[in-house]
Every structure is written in C-alpha cells, then in structure tokens.
Amino acid sequence: MKIETPFGIFFTGGHVPARRVAVILRALEWTASLAERSGMWSRVSTQGGVALERIIYGKQVHLYPLIAAKQDCGDFSNEYSRSHLPISVNARNICVTLKNKKSQVPHCDMVACCVLLLSPSSVPQNQLPSTLRNALFTQSGYFRGGRWYQQESQAVLDFRREVDTDEEATAFIMAHPEAWEELRDELSWRDYPETTLHFVNEMLSGAMDEDDIDNVLWALRHLRGWDEEAFQHRLEPWLDHPNPLVARYALENLHLSSPQHAQRLLWRRCYRDDLMAWNIHQRLQEWPELHEELVRDTVDMVEYAQNDEFRLKALAWVSHFVDMDATIRALIAEEHDFDRLRELLWKVNTNGPWLEDLAMTYIKAPLQSLRLAFVEATAKNRSFDPYPFWRALMDDPKTSGQVRQRILQSLDRVTHEQGLAFLEEGMDVNLRFVQKAALHAMKGFEHTEIEHLLNRGLTSHFTGVKRLAREVAGHFGMDVGPSIEHDRATA
After folding, report:
1. For 339-362, what is each residue's pLDDT tens digit?
2. 353: which of 75, 94, 216, 384 fits an S-S bond (Cβ 3.0–4.6 Å)?
3. What pLDDT is attached to residue 45?
C-alpha cells in the first residue's frame, strides 16, 4: 500500500495491520507539526525520504521520520537497528538507542520526542543521550550539578565583549586567524551582515579542498539563509566536490524545476560510479517523465559498475521494473558479506524458483537478520512454494521471534492447512509480538478453526495480547464480557 505522508511516500506491505499504520501516520503528522511550530527545522530531500534538518553548534543534524516508519513496520534495511533512533550528525549515523532494548516505544515516537528535545534555541545538553551529546558538543566543557556547561574560548569571549559593528567584526577575525573555526559561529546576517557575506564569498571562491568541509558547509548554509536564489545559482559546482558530505549537501538542497533541468544537471553525474551516484539516481527518480530512460540506463550502469554499494542499490531498484534474476544470482554467489546480502534481499525483486534452492543453503545462517531477509524475499517471490523453507525455520529452536513473526504475517503464501499449523506454533511462542502476529492472521480463517487459539489469547498473561484477542473476537462477533480496563477498575 502506498500512502502520502508529510515526509514522502510510505510503502507498507500487506502484513502490516491497519491499526499500526494509523498509529504511524499520526506520529508522522505529530512530528511534522512539532517541527513546523518550533521554526528551528528545515525539510530536505534525502535518500531516506524527506528529512528534518537543523544546525546545532555548526553541526548538521538530520532526523529521518520515514525510516522510523519503516522500522515500525519491521523493515530494518536502512542501517538503523531495532530501538535505534534514525539520526545522523554531519552525515554520520549516531547510535542513539533506548536503555531498555525490549521497549515497545515506536520509532516514530522516538523521532517526535527528539524533535522536541532539539527544538529549543539552546539545546539542553545535559538531557541528551551521551552519544548524541558527544557528537554535537565536542568542545571542552564540564558538568556541575547534573548540568553541562560549555567552555568558551578566550577569543570568543573577547569577540563578544569588544565587537559591536561589522568593521570591528572583520578586523577582529582577521587579527585572530587561528580562532576562525570558533569565531565563524558568532557571525549572522542579523548582527554582522557585511562580515558574514565577506567570509561566505571567501570560503566559496577558493579552490575545492577535500579536507575543507566545515568551512564550505558553513558558507553554503549561511548563503542559503541570506538569498535562496543566489544559493541555487552557486550550488551546481559543489555537486562535484571531492568530499561526499559537501556534494551530498549540494544535491539534497538543489532545486530542480523540470525533468529537463534534472536531466541536464544530473544525468551525466549518475555515471560517476560511486555511492554519490546513487544519491543522484534518487533525485532523478523524482521525475516520472525520466523513468523509462532511467530504467534502461540503470541496467547498463549495473552491468559496468565497479562500486559495490552503487551496484547493489541500483540493482535492487531496477529489479522492480526489469527481470534482473541472472545478475542477482551472480551477485549473490559472489557476496560473502552477510550484511550486504541482507540489504540486497530486503530490497530486490526476484522472479524465478532458483531463490528457493538458495534460501535452503542459508537455512543455518548465523545472523537472524539474514534469515529474516530471506523470509521477506521468499514472501515476495511467487514463483515457488516457500513452505519447505519456512517449515525448516519454524522447526529450528534457534529461529528468532522476528523471523517467526514475519512468517505469520505472510500466511497468504501457504495453504490453508499449513497456515493453521503455523498459527498453532505462533501461539506456543512465549513472545508477545509473535502471539500478536498470530492473532492478526486469525482473521483470515474460519472462527471454528481458530476458536481454541483465540481462547488462549484471551487468557494470555500478556495484557497487549489479551486486548488484541478481544478485538479479534469482536471481528468474529464473539461476546467476551467486560474489557480489561473494566476488570482492573473493579478489581
């Protein structure tokens, strides 16, 4: 199912319950509202959909609400694991996770809470997770009374005390070149417009230095805040900056007015055969008018690509429009990195029964996430019966709850009798989310076939399972008496 959200198109598989989808969409709307009301966040197009961006102490922070939505649907193919917040600082993923890894807090709610936490003009450093605080505030400082205090340099303190005008600001910075990286954050269009413009032009007129990332990003962000038209006019050359952070910033903020404009600026750059090429490819995907030609050229790009990351991502995309099974089989045969193989299986579209034999060879894969990826791939490929593979996984005591859950969410791929057997086994697993997946799947069966399983759900020691069992019972018109909340109130 394809759903329009404030952060781009959200694709959900048929296995995701409608109630969960509704919760995710409400959280995305909430996040968008919080970001808009704060006035501190901007929206940028990224490979994870529309991201929220804010600059904090000169650091570029990105939050990815759409990736969080995918996580809440069980899709962890975007480099962020379960219970991890999809956030990056200066294009580097930051490990921000819940203390209780078994917590049921939705990832979309984590993003919304982070928007609240990072929205004040002065971010409360002592309230941030340690990994995020370390990524944002690398300058020296100290804790006192449970609060973090920033240790300002002497140059910054002198600047604030001695400087009032543009002329004084320019003279002070020129006299203290060693403190430029600290002093540049004191400049703004409101306080020192002429000085800010002077140093923006100076930073952007120099030769492209791969190591000069911070100055270029600082200048581009300030230029955008001053004049959007001038910013767009000067953005194209930075698409070819040797540092991917700068090139990606230019690409994500580039305004493309038409498919012809997109083709003129980006098409040739798609052949640069690196990971940046995939980011460019994604911008071209935004234009339906270019789709047919892009599919045709991507087949050639995949064949001649030397960059493994670009090849994998481009292959997964084009496989949804062209039969690429031969290339996929060859690539999987060569791939010995389980993480990359997992990513390919999550995203690729296959058509032939060869996948069944391949899946059986990985039946004892040490990574549960790889097993899960094979279940996902075999659920999508309808050219063979996945039951033997899934049966072997369900029989293996080492198979994780996530793998069992995904099988229970795909019972339309097995026979009626096989599905009933899987439901029995799902209710035997002492994991809340597995039992809930089994209960959701019961709606596709006759009441008399699953009544005994439903009764087990109604007497479960998991409150969430009991609540869902009551809901499923209502679907079948069963009268199960007072609600759980009523029982608690009268206890």
Report:
1. 778 878 888 899 888 998 888 888
2. 384
3. 72
Quick one: how many helices (H) and strands (E) in the chain? 26, 9
The residues that bridge with 163 in the sheet, in sequence order, are none
Contact 66, 5 (CB under 8 A): yes
What's the rounded Cα separation, in Å, for the pair 130 and 54?
19
**What is the C-alpha separation between 385 and 479, in angstroms, rounded?**
38
Could you please report the per-residue DSSP string of 174-211? HH-GGGHHHHGGG--TTT-HHHHHHHHHHHHHS---TT
Q: How far is it, in rounded angstroms, from Cα 427 to Cα 92?
A: 41
Q: Which residues of 103-141 are buried (b: 16+ CB within 10 A; e: fewer)?
A: eeebbbbbbbebbeebbeeebebeebbeebbebbbeeee
- Give backbone dihedrals phi and psi of 306, rounded to 5 degrees, phi first: -105, -25
Among residues of the chain, what percentage have pLDDT more than 90? 37
DSSP character for 210?
A: T
Residue 377 has a CB neighbour count (10 Å cut-off) of 22
Task: Provide the 10 A C-beta neighbour count for residue 181.
Answer: 12
403 contacts 375 by C-beta, under 8 angstroms: yes
Tell me, yes or no, if the pTM score tops 0.85: no
User: Sorting pLDDT into bands at 50, 70 and 90, what band is 226?
Assistant: confident
Is 84 in contact with 43 (CB distance < 8 Å)? no
**Tokens (6 digits) for 25:** 């969409």
CB contact set of 103 (below 8 Å; sequence gap of 6+): 83
What number is the average pLDDT over the span 122-150?
Answer: 65
Residues 313 and 304: their CA atoms lie apart, in Å, by: 14
Q: Take residue 457 and report the two structure tokens written for it.
A: 């759900």
> Which residue, 419, 334, 342, is CA-closest to 375?
342
d(CA 371, CA 355): 13
